[in-house]
Amino acid sequence: MTNKALDNTGLILIGHGSKLPHNQENLEKLAEILRAQSAFKLVEIAFMIRNTPTIPEAIDTIAKNGVTKIVLVPVFLAAGVHTTQEIPELIEVKDKQSQLTQRGIQLFYGEPIGADQCLAVILEEKALKAIGNDWQHRHARFKGSPIETYPATSTKIYEQSMKLIHPEIQDVLNKAPKNQIPIIERVVHTTADPEFAKLLVISEQAVEAGVSAIKAGAKIITDTKMIKAGIHEARIQRFGGEILTYIDDPRASKAATDESITRSTAAVRLAVADNADNAIFLIGNAPTAAFELAEQVKQGKIKPALIIAVPVGYVGAAESKEAIAQLNVPYMITRGKKGSSTIAVAIFNALLAMAEANP
Hints:
Layout: E1 9-15, H1 22-35, E2 42-47, H2 55-63, E3 69-74, H3 81-91, H4 93-102, E4 106-109, H5 117-130, H6 146-175, H7 181-191, H8 196-199, E5 200-202, H9 206-215, E6 219-222, H10 225-229, H11 233-237, E7 242-245, H12 250-259, H13 263-273, E8 280-283, H14 287-298, E9 306-309, H15 317-325, E10 331-334, H16 341-357
């Protein structure tokens, strides 16, 4: 990442300052990562209040080290009073610029972080990690930092996991069609439970139907926000698709109250009303959603491209999945009471990887 044009440029990361130590520690860690890149001659930190060095102090420190440019970047999420008024005043742009110009140094002031795509990827990774889903860093890789080695480490962990998993499910894999194996592997890896290799039921042509629907830009309809959070929406959008969840739609809440039904039932009805033909349905939580979807299909009101129904629970979960299995629609289910939203995500992400591998 070395850039000779920046050899004489210093960077200052500006934080707010806090009486707690974490603010300063995080800012220093960011500076350390950037120092390792060798893009800037110097990288320093500075604070608006409480902590040191102050912004003028950091400018003076860098100016003494033979730079010709100093860039100051506020480490704030969005523009506001701090970034548009207070920090420029603390920098004393006019006075400082005049003094520095006499010494052949230019001063630049950058923008806050903002709604950057890289930040969105990081937030997505945090969400996936929180729900225990497979994840790894996909944003910029940093030379000489631990982040650079993480994907390789993650890959090694996954490969080692597969070596441990395969002997436990080899009998199932030997009988499974080749295109179902990645799905079985991912579900077992996600749950750390080999029993799911036997509980997972994939109908004939279900894999092909799911991959084709993804590549055709189909709607992806989920019964929970957790499932939606576990899917990389940008990857879906590349195919022209979108992910929809109706569970929090005010219309679902109203219908649930007015008609004495569950919100999950109402959400399925909304999806059907919004034209969900050829969509992929992902149900990982609510048996009532699976029951309602099965009923809507039987009545001829909708024909999904694929139904992935893996709701969990002691009441109705097993029966709802069997109702899906009786339909003339491609499906993937887990038999019995076991299931979860994370399994629905694992199955779909395996299909998505297949679609991307054969665009």
